[in-house]
Structure formats: C-alpha cells, structure tokens
TrEMBL record:
Source species, domain of life: Bacteria
Pfam families, sorted: DUF6343 (PF19870)
Keyword annotations of the record: Membrane, Transmembrane, Transmembrane helix
Name the record gives this protein: DUF6343 family protein
InterPro entries: DUF6343
Organism, scientific name: Actinomadura fibrosa
Membrane-spanning ranges: 32-54, 60-83
Annotated region described as Disordered, given as residue ranges: 1-24
C-alpha cells in the first residue's frame, strides 16, 4: 500500500499517475491561440459596429459594439490568466 503514494519532495510530480501518457501536453497553448483570435475578432467587429452606429445605424449597432467589447475584455483577461499560469 505504501508504494501507491507519490514520492515526497520536489520530484513528487514527475511521474504521472494512472494511464496518463508521458508526452501529455498542456492545453494552454491552444487556449491562448483561441483567446488571441477572439480578442482580435472582437476588437475588429466592435470597431466596425461602432463606426456603423456613428453613421446613424440606431441602437442595434451600439449594442453589438458593446457585446464585442465585453468579449474582447473577457479574451484579454483569459490571456492574462494564461500568461500567469505559463510563468508558474
């Protein structure tokens, strides 16, 4: 029963438990790419909707620009979290 415990000390996380492959990769890179794409797309769409609203498009484009701004803020926050986790 004692051989089932992970080793103590700094090397205790080196051996993956169970059937996890030794070449397992973190999904942070894919998550960062998706967040970056979402950030760029949301900023571009937000600018386009804001320009359309400024030309007299009514309340609809302003609401769409606000939603795009919210998506951009969430994507930027996600990129900040990813950067912090990557450094750790």
């Amino acid at each position: 029963m004692d051989d089932m415990r992970p080793p103590a000390g700094p090397d205790r996380h080196r051996q993956p438990p169970g059937t996890e492959p030794l070449t397992a990769r973190s999904p942070l890179r894919l998550r960062a790419i998706l967040s970056a794409v979402a950030l760029v797309a949301a900023v571009a769409a937000g600018i386009a909707f804001a320009v359309a609203a400024a030309r007299g498009g009514g309340a609809g484009p302003w609401a769409a620009a606000a939603v795009c701004a919210l998506v951009a803020v969430i994507a930027a926050a996600d990129l900040a979290v990813i950067a912090r986790r990557h450094r750790a």
